[in-house]
Amino acid sequence: MVETRKVQVTGGSTYTVSIPKDWATDNGVSAGSEVAFYPEGDSLFLTPRTGDERTEGTLDIGELAGDELIRAVMTMYVSGFDIISLESARIATDQRRTIRQATQSLVGLEVLEETRDTVVIRDLLDSSELSINNAVTRMRLIALSMLEDAVTALIDLDEDLARDVIQRDDDVDRLWMVVSRIFRATLRSPRAAEELGVSREVCFDYQSAARQLERVADHATKIAHLSLNFDEPLPEEVKDALDGLHADAANVIDVAMDALFLDGSDEATREANEARESVQDIDSHARSIDELLRDLDPSRAQLLGLVVDSLSRSADYGGNIAETALQKAAPTP
């Protein structure tokens, strides 16, 4: 229910407006309490000001184990809890090992305290030190290098390089969790957006792009896994075709990301449209490679068809980033 208040002037120059009593009661605001104001465009956000801004959350892990327990810890992390208490009647040794594994896979987390029935995890990073721009930029560099190295591993039959690509996927996942955590923090609190120096709309754009980059990294990992199934060199024409398709797909992602980070709306729109139009050329390029694969052994052709599909999908994700860049560059209503 929307409540309205009339702005009044006191002392000849000070504008005042009353706060709804129900809201004040629910949020512990009373006479003498301090509140904080955060301007954003034509809006003004008001929040209670408290001494401790760190949030605590408790989760009963019960019989959770393995991937389910890891996912539970990650969910609490992304949700924005700074201190996470994992509780159970008795936490088993395997559960403790899994919790430490989950903690090591997330940026900034450290086990603070362990007892028979509780493990307390704390985020040691200061939110003001986080940068969603830097996290997305780092994701871009890693995802594109993974895609390039995965194709190289396939062409050169380099098993060590393929396994290195697979390991690097963890780095992208960690950064994706950081971006998600930052984004959700800006949705909950205008203070978080102010500390970042980035509007919540731009945070949404960066989070959308990060999701696409995470998918590109997944497909690079898939190509690396597929490359481990080959023990004989590919025909030169197939190598050249795959190398060319990768170059085109990577270019779409690069141009789209450049457009996303541009401040000028005209240049950003031009580059974003260029990236979107390039996706159509990649579709025809992929079909021409499929024609080449028909002359190969059916099992090899099937595996290479999956590689072509992953490169095409990576270009599609670049096209999605370009769409986000266009929305970011559009005039604000």
Automatic annotation (TrEMBL):
<dbReference type="InterPro" id="IPR038078">
    <property type="entry name" value="PhoU-like_sf"/>
</dbReference>
<dbReference type="Pfam" id="PF01895">
    <property type="entry name" value="PhoU"/>
</dbReference>
<dbReference type="Pfam" id="PF04014">
    <property type="entry name" value="MazE_antitoxin"/>
</dbReference>
<dbReference type="InterPro" id="IPR007159">
    <property type="entry name" value="SpoVT-AbrB_dom"/>
</dbReference>
<dbReference type="InterPro" id="IPR028366">
    <property type="entry name" value="PhoU"/>
</dbReference>
<feature type="domain" description="SpoVT-AbrB">
    <location>
        <begin position="9"/>
        <end position="54"/>
    </location>
</feature>
<dbReference type="InterPro" id="IPR026022">
    <property type="entry name" value="PhoU_dom"/>
</dbReference>
<protein>
    <submittedName>
        <fullName>Phosphate uptake regulator PhoU</fullName>
    </submittedName>
</protein>
<dbReference type="GO" id="GO:0003677">
    <property type="term" value="F:DNA binding"/>
</dbReference>
<dbReference type="GO" id="GO:0045936">
    <property type="term" value="P:negative regulation of phosphate metabolic process"/>
</dbReference>
<dbReference type="GO" id="GO:0030643">
    <property type="term" value="P:intracellular phosphate ion homeostasis"/>
</dbReference>
